[in-house]
């Protein structure tokens, strides 16, 4: 039969008191922070899960920033395409108007307007968003040079919307007449003066159709970006709930356990105090 010494009893009692105090301290820390996990040792598995959830939240935050950038650039591309369409359509109207007039003065005015529209188109094709050409790809010199040549490189500007999806947020200027409009409008301006501008209608209509096609593609990408943003926002809400379920405490439960732990601690102190009053002489009596 094992012999229980007074020193052994004291050590055991002190260990139990310390354990009870540590448990009360953990509960107090949880109540103060509102979190069940305040350090990895509280729950290694739960801490690992929280790290994964927070990593996903951080990634989603970056995806939302990417989507904001994509929306801004696509909106700029869309409005610029509409402005280009408007100018090209005005050129077409001038060509049509030429057929209905024999006045040299009217033709001169229509021709001069085409020259002005060419300058406006030059600026539109060189539109930038946050310092980057929206029709020149990754070219540092924009999309159109002063002589009307296309200076873009055609490299797409891509934005990542989530872990598996990217979208192009620019338009290759070569597909919307960035390298053609200048020479074409020079010809139109001269042909208006000569009364033969109607022969350019097919070429102008071709440019208009290219701009319409690009506008439709941009609209589809904008819808995709919007859908992706909504999906990420929904996922973030789910991640927040999951993180709260993994980390947050039930205050009522923690406070109840803390009260119970305090009672147990006080009881352990009382028992230990009574043991301390017992001496070897008490056993010899």
Describe, in plain words, how this protein is organized in 3D.
The chain has 285 residues and is mostly helical. The protein has 7 helices and 4 strands. The protein has helices at 6-33, 44-99, 104-125, 181-194, 201-247, 251-276, 280-284, and strands at residues 128-129, 132-133, 158-160, 166-168. The strands form 2 sheets. Strands 1-2 form a two-stranded antiparallel sheet. Helix 3 packs antiparallel against helix 4 (181-194). The radius of gyration is 38 Å and the shape is rod-shaped. The two termini are 23 Å apart.
State the gist of this model:
With 285 residues, the protein is mostly helical. The chain contains 7 helices and 4 strands; from the N terminus they run H-H-H-E-E-E-E-H-H-H-H.
């Amino acid at each position: 039969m094992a012999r229980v010494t007074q020193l052994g009893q004291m050590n055991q009692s002190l260990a139990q008191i310390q354990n009870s105090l540590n448990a009360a301290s953990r509960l107090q820390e949880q109540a103060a922070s509102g979190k069940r996990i305040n350090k990895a040792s509280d729950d290694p598995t739960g801490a690992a899960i929280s790290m994964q959830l927070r990593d996903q939240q951080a990634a989603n935050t970056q995806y939302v920033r990417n989507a904001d950038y994509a929306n801004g650039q696509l909106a700029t591309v869309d409005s610029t395409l509409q402005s280009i369409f408007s100018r090209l359509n005005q050129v077409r109207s001038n060509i049509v108007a030429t057929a209905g007039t024999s006045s040299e003065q009217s033709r001169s005015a229509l021709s001069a307007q085409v020259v002005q529209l060419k300058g406006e188109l030059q600026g539109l094709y060189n539109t930038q968003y946050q310092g980057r050409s929206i029709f020149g790809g990754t070219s540092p010199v924009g999309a159109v040079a002063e002589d009307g040549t296309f200076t873009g490189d055609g490299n797409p500007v891509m934005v990542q919307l989530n872990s598996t999806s990217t979208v192009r947020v620019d338009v290759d200027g070569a597909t919307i007449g960035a390298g053609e409009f200048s020479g074409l409008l020079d010809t139109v301006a001269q042909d208006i003066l000569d009364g033969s501008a109607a022969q350019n209608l097919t070429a102008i209509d071709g440019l208009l159709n290219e701009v319409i096609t690009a506008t439709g593609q941009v609209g589809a990408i904008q819808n995709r970006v919007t859908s992706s943003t909504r999906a990420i926002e929904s996922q973030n809400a789910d991640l927040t709930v999951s993180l709260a379920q993994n980390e947050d405490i039930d205050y009522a439960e923690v406070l109840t356990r803390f009260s119970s732990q305090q009672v147990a601690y006080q009881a352990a102190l009382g028992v230990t105090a009574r043991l301390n009053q017992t001496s070897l002489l008490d056993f010899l009596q």
